[in-house]
Amino acid sequence: MLSCDAIRDAVEEYGDMLYRTCVLMLGNVHDAEDAVQETYITYMRKAPPFSDSEHEKAWLLTVAANKCRDMLRYRKRHITEPESVLDTLVQDSESSYILEALMMLPDKFRIVLTLHYIDGYKVEEIAGMIGKSASAVKMRLQKGRKLLKEAYRKE
């Protein structure tokens, strides 16, 4: 079991990044808060020894992404009301439209675009997080960019 200081440090260091990722994946602040909370509960119970802070960060992002995927699978089976959260994330309408388009993408494209362009992970790191090859991640990035471009042209 981790110490209270270690948990507090992780929340302070990675909380905003995890929350932002979960909001983008789920499109709902309440579900995102739940996913982040569940991520930290898993962290308290099961965190392996980390080789460095990047390993810890990657582990937390992977757990958070898995929690979000679980919630999305649940939503497919159960009707939920959509909630717009873009106003809380961005101030200008251009960024709001891009985030709105990003949230409309299928999960497999949204997560790689978020991890690469928003959180700054390299292709190889993302591949390790999602359990796919680097070439699969590159293809998802390419297809995701194409889908975003098409959505942008429609406006």
Question: In short, what is this structure?
Answer:
Helix content is 79%, strand content 0%. The protein has 155 residues and is an all-alpha fold. About 7% of the residues have low confidence.
Tell me what the structure shows.
There is one protein chain. This protein is mostly helical and 155 residues long. The protein folds into 2 domains: 1-89, Rna Polymerase Sigma Factor, Chain: A (Orthogonal Bundle), CATH 1.10.1740; 90-155, Arc Repressor Mutant, subunit A. Helix content is 79%, strand content 0%. It is built from 8 helices and no strands. α2 (29-46) packs across α3, α6 crosses α8 (134-154) and α7 crosses α8.
CATH fold category name of the largest domain: Rna Polymerase Sigma Factor, Chain: A
Number of domains: 2
- The stretches of 5 or more residues where confidence is low (pLDDT under 50) are 80-90
Tally of extended strands?
A: 0
The SSE string, one letter per element, is HHHHHHHH
Distance between the termini: 51 Å
How many alpha or pi helices?
A: 8
Shape: globular
Named CATH architecture of the largest domain = Orthogonal Bundle
Radius of gyration computed on alpha carbons? 16 Å
User: How is the main sheet built?
Assistant: none
CATH C-level class of the largest domain? Mainly Alpha
The averaged pLDDT comes out at: 83
Helix fraction, binned, reads over 70%
Helix/strand/pairing category: mainly alpha
> Into which percentage range does the β-strand content fall?
under 5%
